[in-house]
Design brief:
Layout lengths: L2 H7 L12 H6 L4 E5 L2 E4 L4 E4 L2 H4 L8 H13 L11 H13 L5 E5 L2 H18 L7 E5 L8 H6 L3 H4 L9 E4 L5 H4 L15 H9 L4 E6 L15 H12 L2 E5 L13 H5 L5 E4 L11 E5 L1 H7 L19 H16 L2 H17 L7 E7 L2 E6 L8 H12 L2 E2 L1 E3 L2 E4 L7 H17 L2
Parallel strand pairs: 3-13, 5-6, 5-7, 7-8, 8-9
Antiparallel strand pairs: 1-2, 2-3, 4-10, 9-10, 11-12, 12-15, 14-15
Helix pairs in contact: 4-14, 5-14, 6-13, 15-17
């Protein structure tokens, strides 16, 4: 064992790990030390097939030399530039590239993560209404089982109880739509479920309860990722758009996961042909190489702020690292890869094979649902009596031991391989899952 890895194993206490059972991990640490293409390498030198694109983010595969070189060159040339009242060329170049990929969106606000993108979008939504003379529109509508990061705003509009219960009442003036997951009606759906468009009409009930004049925005993940890949019913997102437009409510798509090819298109907005007013992004923006996020907004929203004294700051919001030059270099390199290698179209072309492979696991031990869209998938398994999540974690551990990295959330196995995945690797993921499920109690 190399000295640096041995030293790490002897010094695990200082790092408080996020979203991790720290004591369990430190008793049996899983350490990754290298990555290239579709594979990680563990501390023991084993290859681990990446079935999750890292954490939904390494869409172009690991270790892309174009990104490495872009980061290296930018660090040598400009390691940092402030973003308040001054900037650098790459931030503007990247914004141009992103708006070209997102027709109908004319401005980009840069952040450093999906959580920051969500909180930024929520603040912009409230400030937009105030700028237009509707300061009473402060209420935010999220959705049950939604995940919108871990800032106070994102946690408040999020709907995963385990992420909320330790932190008190969160923000006021927040309500939630019902989630769209219905095993009785939609189990084993391929793509968008047939049943559930009526759930969007619950927004009309919330409008009647609170009055539209109090509601600033509705935020949803087009496909709810971290809660277990909940695919929207047919027509659901379009109906939300219609209701929001009817009542002057902004619609925010949280595309931190779905942007940059996950569904076989640049964005879920493009895939579903439903245009929100704001889109949040992160993860695939830099292929996971450097932390960065972004919010895309329409020209109408931006123009609402561009009034009054031209020397005044129009939006009192931003981050020390907004549009960081090294992150911008990584993002431009990542976008170049996506376009040069036509990875979004490649993902679309692989989607049916992916669906067939996942649904071949129907009938396997413990499996109660399988769902998919694009290169996203979920296998829901029956929980152990009185121990929710325990069976899925065992599956996670045993898959890792067999050389495949999956993700579990509750009793759902979530899968999202890099867009460069080959058919043989899809087969390996499903074969290992079949073996592990068969032998898991």
């Amino acid at each position: 064992m190399p000295a640096d890895i041995a030293a790490t194993r002897n010094s695990l206490n200082s790092y408080w790990m996020p979203f991790t059972a720290n004591r369990r991990f430190k008793a049996n640490p899983l350490l990754l030390v290298e990555a290239e293409g579709m594979y990680y390498r563990s501390e023991g030198g084993r290859s681990i097939l990446d079935g999750t694109a890292g954490l939904w983010c390494v869409n172009a595969g690991h270790g892309r030399p174009q990104i490495t070189e872009a980061v290296h060159q930018m660090l040598r040339r400009l390691d940092y530039a402030p973003s308040f009242q001054i900037s650098h060329p790459l931030a503007f170049q990247l914004a141009d590239r992103l708006t070209a990929l997102l027709p109908g969106f004319e401005q980009i606000f840069f952040t450093n993560s999906g959580s920051e993108s969500v909180d930024t979008a929520l603040k912009i939504a409230i400030a937009y209404h105030r700028a237009r003379g509707e300061a009473g529109r402060t209420r935010l509508i999220g959705r049950e089982r939604g995940y919108h990061g871990v800032g106070f705003g994102g946690t408040s509009v999020g709907g995963i109880s385990g992420n909320r219960k330790a932190f008190g009442p969160m923000l006021g003036d927040v309500d939630h739509l019902p989630h769209t997951h219905n095993l009785a009606a939609n189990a084993y759906s391929r793509g968008e479920p047939e049943s559930g468009v009526h759930l969007a009409d619950e927004l009309e009930r919330l409008v009647a309860l609170h009055d539209a004049s109090t509601i600033a925005a509705v935020i949803v993940e087009p496909v709810a990722g971290s809660t277990g890949v909940l695919v929207p019913p047919k027509g659901y997102l379009r109906r939300l758009r219609e209701i929001c437009s009817k009542h002057g409510i902004l619609l925010i798509f949280d595309e931190v996961i779905t942007a940059f090819g996950r569904l076989g298109a640049m964005s879920a907005s493009t895939f579903f042909d439903v245009k929100p007013d704001l889109i949040t992004m992160a993860k695939g923006l830099t292929n996971g190489a450097i932390p960065m996020g972004a919010v895309a907004v329409t020209g109408e929203i931006y123009d609402a702020f561009m009034r009054g004294d031209e020397s005044a700051i129009e939006l009192a919001h931003g981050y020390t690292y907004s549009g960081h030059p090294v992150a911008a270099a990584a993002a431009i390199a990542a976008v170049n890869i996506y376009q040069d290698e036509q990875l979004f179209a490649r993902a679309a072309g692989m989607a049916d094979y992916w669906a067939d492979a996942l649904h071949s696991l129907r009938g396997r031990r413990h499996v109660i649902d399988i769902r998919n869209l694009g290169l996203m998938g979920a296998i829901e398994i029956e929980p152990r009596q009185g121990k929710p999540g325990a069976r899925a974690f065992d599956v996670f551990q045993r898959c890792f031991d067999k050389g495949v990295l999956i993700r579990v959330t509750g009793d759902v196995i979530a899968l999202s391989p890099p867009l460069i995945v080959e058919k043989e690797q899809i087969g390996q993921i499903c074969e290992v899952l079949a073996e592990v499920l068969a032998s898991t109690s």
